[in-house]
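pinning this so it doesn't scroll away 📌
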Amino acid sequence: MTTDPQGTPTNPDAAADGVRLQKVMASAGVASRRVSEDLIAAGRVRVNGKVVTELGRRIHPDTDKIAVDNIAVQLDTTRRYVMLNKPVGVVSSMQDESGRPDLREFTDQFEERLFNVGRLDAMTSGLLILTNDGDLAHVLAHPSFGVTKTYIAKVEGRVSAQTIGLLQSGIELDDGPISADKARILTSPPGDGFSLVELTLHSGRNRIVRRMMEAVGHPVVDLVRRQFGPLHLGTLRVGDVRDLTKAELGQLLTVSRAETKD
């Protein structure tokens, strides 16, 4: 067994340069160096997918990926991740050419230059992620990675179980077939009133929920995105923004890394 000058066992395969793992973890806000050392020794830390228990292990924060208890850790402290409950009437753009209200109202308060992950149409409210992490944004927004979004739709008429089955089995739209990953009725009062339907899907096609409900005879009156991947809108009020918690960010990064690995 080899040791470093302080007598700490080292891995001969570890990089000779780089930064000590526990120091990187502390800088990223995971825990103090001492607690980080305990996490490493307990086998709860992975570097690039492999468990590391050597306290002398050095890593390259710019390229190596860390996970603690299988939850990803962001080592780049210049990255910012914000959740917005977008109001109706705001377009998902940083500068609308037609002069309509846009996202600058919510991003100007941050020092970082943030941009939106995906889009919500102007008449749809709900969860929108703002970030300066382009790699993460690409994975979350591109439909090929299969990150799901959940919507609550208030629609005209009484939605039946048969209609829910049709949404899940698939319908044909002008731009091709589409099916919901999940669909369920939240409320469906008797008569010709309004129903509430929850739809989960990974498609990124334009106005897809509105077009799906229109196709099955239940036009959307009001639409809210409540969930994006592992993130939930919760009690965030319309028009409010907040930074993601460390737990939320860890879940989001974990989903992102899992998708790019597949």
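📌 and the second one:
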Amino acid sequence: MCGIVGLFLKDPKLEGELGAMLASMLCVMTDRGPDSAGFAVYGAGGKDSVKLSLRAARGYDFEGLAAGLSGPANGMPALVLHGTHAVVEIPQVREAAVRAFLAERHPEVAVVGTGSRMEIFKEVGLPSSVAQTFGLAQMRGTHGIGHTRMATESAVTTAGAHPFSTGADQCLVHNGSLSNHNALRRQLKREGIAIETENDSEVAAGYLTWRMREGASLGQALEAGLKDLDGFFTFVVGTESGFGVLRDPIACKPAVMAETDQYVAFGSEYRALVDLPGIAKAKVFEPEPATVYFWERAQ
């Protein structure tokens, strides 16, 4: 049992409140997942730059790392510290060189996610502690997703916490269990998709990345997943411009959504949504089984 939440803003006036709204939703889901928590926020980004969300041991010298990256990044990267995580922003054309440098010289640093707008943070501990540690309530953006984990099939580790990201500006949170993840993991690795953990949810993220790399839209990738992914699942997925939801054909994992002129929100339970503005007048509904829901911001 896990808790998942998501929030997609239609009204730009709410962007400064995204973090506070998402933090409230995440913390309500504590009893569904007290082991670990994480979230992704889609905020501001430069057209020709990319953000790397990095994770290392507590007390790690990220400032020293940033200084070392000035070579492969062709200049001192912008750095924002968040406890055990840091976000560095580099020129997009230097991403491959920076990632190669990190892999060779700093294997102790994990790249949690990359993208022009996406930042990912996750840690072991109660959702309220994780949200506070990373300053979620102060973050702004257009959309975000979050997860509270109760581990069932893999260890309680930060690496096993959600969201999982296997492609640029792509991430996924999952409540459920996939039965064919081992076969899919082998297939995806042959296709060049990097899977770093034994978690079945990372396989689901990798599957969507592979489908989209092959030319599918997020909606088409989710549709294909109904045929290729075996098991029980509710997914909430983020991309640079959009937010998607999918439940398996049986839909045994709880889910509820609310939509107003200002936002679309998702929660594993309705109580995650009750503090949102205008919820009393929102269209509240349960997403249908085997049905893709997707919202995209104007470009």
